Amino acid sequence: MIVLEGGHVATVDAAGTEYPDGHVVIDGTALVAVGPGPAPDELRAGAQLLDTSGCLVTPGLVNTHHHLYQWLTRGFAADSTLFGWLTELYPIWARLDADAVHAGASANLGWLALSGCSTSTDHHYVFPKADLLEATIEAALEIGVRFHPCRGSMDLGASDGGLPPDAVVEDREAILIATEAAIDRWHDESPAAMTRIAVAPCSPFSVTAELMREAAELARDKGVRLHTHLAETSDEEQFCQQTYGRTPAEYLAELDWLGPDVWLAHCVHLADPAIADFARTGTAVAHCPTSNGRLGAGSARVRDLIDAGVPVGLGVDGSASNEAGRLVEELRSAMMVARLRSGPQALTAREALRLATMGGARCLGRQAELGSLEPGKLADVAVWRLDELGLAGGLDPVFCWAFSSSAPLELLLVNGRGVVAESTLLTADSGRLAREAAAASARLVGR
Question: Is the pLDDT of residue 395 over 90?
Answer without folding.
Answer: no
